[in-house]
Amino acid sequence: xxxxxxxxxxxxxxxxxxRPVEQRVVIDPVRASFDRIAEQYAADFAxxxxxxxxxxxxxxxxxxxxxxxxxxxxGCGSAGHVGRFLADLGVCVVGIDFSERSMAHASRLNPxxxxxxxxxxxxPIADRACAGIVAFYSLIYGDxxxxxxxxxxxxxxxxxxxxxxxxxxxxTGAQRxxxxxxxxxxxxxxxxxxxxxxxQVRRAGFAVESVEVRPPYGFEHATExxxxxxRARGGS
Length: 236
Prior knowledge:
7 helices
């Protein structure tokens, strides 16, 4: 398998030159927050898929639909559990996260997987290099403009026909959080309306194949969950 990492883009991402100032204003407090909670988050989420049969089934379908080739776990988090699950199914996974402390924890918990620094609007990945992308709860921290930029970036790195699976919180508006289990954070969780979010995915160059909503499990944040499965339309 050829290396999907674009060295020039990776260097630019590290210097944050590719991201407009307004995107940095949105995301930098979130990155700092996840740096602070990395250890606690890893402990809380490392085994969560064992309690989420709905998610497991969607991930299995996604893995089965992907062609051979690298698959990105965008916003892999400090647990790296989604990427680990896919890797156990035989998928070639590269974890991406903007929090260096989260990546350090994920690497320690999942030594067989590869992890690379980057955020969803500035991926250090070559054009059309990926067979699939999974983004579980990583497109929930920015407004519509940020999300549009992130979806366009996902489309850039996904080959024509490549598969996308996104999970977000369903609803309207946003909710700001200032602490996570006693740790200070500065995070706004943006809810997505199913029809509007699916339309946003389509505008980014994807053919949407399914839009599904499930109620929360009893141990989850009390919001409905939205899953959009799509494939990249032909062309660059």
